[in-house]
Amino acid sequence: MTVEQWLGKDNTLGIDIWNKKYRYNNESFDEWLDRVSGGDSDLRQLILEKKFLFGGRILSNRGLDKLGEKVTLSNCYVVEPPEDNIESIFDCAKKLARTYSYGGGCGVDISKLAPKGARVTNTAKETSGSVSFMDLYSLVTGLIGQNGRRGALMISIACDHPDLEEFIEIKSDLDKVTKANISIRITDKFMLAVKMRKPFVLSFTREETGETIRKEIDAYSVFHKLCEMNWDYAEPGMLFWDRIENWNLLSADKEFSYAGTNPCAEEPLPAGGSCLLGSINLSEFVTENKTFNFTDFKKTVDIAVRALNIVLDEGLPLHPLKEQRESVRDWRQIGLGIFGLADLLIKIGIKYGSPESIDLCDMIGHAMAYQAIMTSNSIAIEVGSYPKYKPDAVKQSPFFTEHIDELYRENISEIGLCNSQLLTIAPTGSLSSMLGVSGGIEPVYANYYTRKTESLHGHDEYYKVYTPIVKKYIDEYGLKDDSELPDFFVTAQTLNYKERIDMQSIWQRHIDASISSTVNVPNNFTVKDTEDLYLYAWEKGLKGVTIFRDGCKRTGILTTDNKKKETKENNSDSNVPITLQRGMIIKADDNCIGKKRTLQTGCGTLHCEAFFDPDTGDLLETYLSKGSKGGCLNSLTGLSRLISLSARAGVDIYSIVDQLKSSGTCPSYAVRTATKHDTSIGSSCPVAVGNALLNMYKELQGELFEDVDEKPIKNKETIKRGKRLGIKPVDKSQIVPCPECGSPLVFEGGCNSCKNCGFSKCD
């Protein structure tokens, strides 16, 4: 068989991914299949049927050690947290460098490092703090190459560390910690303080000096700042640490503790811990009657768990560090997960996030956990349990009792398990792109993407390219275009965040490790919405989650240096606009499109005029004036001037409106709303103005950039003035280019990936 026959000759993206990422030298597809399957005929058949794939490191590296290659078969590690001394801090950097050189990603927790201002017994007199060493670890990550790429790093800190607030804000400086993801280990105690608006104590005691640094904070204020950073920069992520520690097979084992998580947070691990990944493609288990084939699925779980254990033994001597080899030997973690969930639901005809979808995933997840535990037990009967296994501890684990009937518990716990950790859900960015299905538990990111061609018409034209599952459905049912799709086709941008979290929650119930997860939200998602999302995620028992708001400032961090350089060099001929430098204010000329709204406020009428760029539709000027009755003219004049200044400085309208909506409630506005019921939408004049501006903006965007069907999307050659001024059309303003092909990156499953060329930061 050839790779074209396996993936389909029209799947050029999948073929390119296989050639670039997983093929070794010029081996044939059959040679690759033999190498990756290790001679296991059952496993070979699963790969051929696209039902199961190992993680990227195994697909790339299995068997290459026999050819003299220095490789690891593990995607991720957690290094031992550095102790509070300079030797340990730099030893940690050395361990990171060695692990990266073998191709592994790393997590490191800095909670043991003294906070800023603590006394030290050297010439510095006081420490620069734990956060100051983050750039060291980030720098190491950026220095060590991995076959043309750089390593991945997660830096975490405990929520009761006195450097917490500095840690939260570190990435607001775009030049800081550029090569790492960051997360906070959030406890239930902290979240309860947030909900109850109570103070929370940050504390650290230095063993060397006996000094205790103590600080009392307002929990909600710090949580609000954390959510603001997530809204603006998509970091720091939140790791709900009590749930991580209490929902796994080792929760009752007092000898065991987690030291941190891997870069995408799906793998909490002990010091030196590592994990082998593999994922089952759920979309391949739909029967002709549109039901899920549980028998075939459980058989696949069994084969996959056995295969991962074989690879674990093969890879044991290949880990870069002694502490990693010892940890893997003692605890034997594997990470079997899933992908293609969204495709599965579409094939069956169930809407993602609906009660029916949650019920189905509950059954699939339970079957997966049950079979994985039973198979691990069967292997233990043959070869023995993992060395650190404790029967009583596992038997008392809530996760174990949730998934194993009382009839079998005693027997399984006495014989033991071959693995202390079995299940995880990783990003699967490259795997899912190669097979043309959705990644992890993510919904379909978009029904279609726009692709550009420059040669067919002598100028740029943009076309729709449908996601594979969408194209298949359109072709199968003879639909005109995606506008005729049934309502069970939902995307990451249109899905209600609670439905997205509900889906992750039900899967987390059956996953003993964690889930790499991104909740994509629209640009108009507010900071308050972000707070509600994280509170809901905690209440639903998630172990961790991040959000990515369309158009947030994180895009400035993600853009590659090469791309920035290319933009500067080619600006005169490029479609990429110049980015306004800090302090630059553009001038609004007379060639604007004006719109007007008359608002009813608590004091009377208020006239809101807004003027927009005719090419891009972006806000440039706002004028506010009162009627015969209606507010303070000087205040309105000042407000309109500040809105206009912000808009012409490059601040997007959603950020401006979010600030206006934070103005609170005006008593006169509330009284008139309650008595006459004729006020404009809002709670005060600034809030009403914000709603009006957004309404006019969206109305104009619809006029300038109307939707199209199969025809080329509106020609972008008209955007000349917008290019010059650094203003771009809605939804195009925050595109992050892929470092390999320049197409827009998407952020899903905790990772950046490209739908055009298959690039993935995490796989």
Automatic annotation (TrEMBL):
Ribonucleotide reductase large subunit C-terminal domain segment(s): 74-547
Keywords: Cobalamin, Cobalt, Disulfide bond, DNA synthesis, Nucleotide-binding, Oxidoreductase
EC numbers, comma separated: 1.17.4.1
Alphabetized CDD domains for the sequence: RNR_II_dimer
InterPro entries attached to this UniProt entry: RdRp_reductase_class-2, RNR_lg_C, RNR_NrdJ/NrdZ, TSCPD_dom
Cofactors: adenosylcob(III)alamin
Broad class of enzyme this protein falls into: oxidoreductase
An individual GO BP term: DNA biosynthetic process
Reaction catalysed by this enzyme: a 2'-deoxyribonucleoside 5'-diphosphate + [thioredoxin]-disulfide + H2O = a ribonucleoside 5'-diphosphate + [thioredoxin]-dithiol
Domain named TSCPD: residues: 594-695
GO MF terms held by the record: cobalamin binding; nucleotide binding; ribonucleoside-diphosphate reductase activity, thioredoxin disulfide as acceptor
Protein origin, superkingdom: Bacteria
SUPFAM superfamilies recorded: PFL-like glycyl radical enzymes (SSF51998)
Listed PANTHER family: RIBONUCLEOSIDE-DIPHOSPHATE REDUCTASE, VITAMIN B12-DEPENDENT RIBONUCLEOTIDE REDUCTASE
Described purpose of this protein according to its UniProt entry: Catalyzes the reduction of ribonucleotides to deoxyribonucleotides. May function to provide a pool of deoxyribonucleotide precursors for DNA repair during oxygen limitation and/or for immediate growth after restoration of oxygen.
Homology family: Belongs to the ribonucleoside diphosphate reductase class-2 family.
Protein name: Vitamin B12-dependent ribonucleotide reductase
Species per Swiss-Prot/TrEMBL record: Blautia hansenii DSM 20583
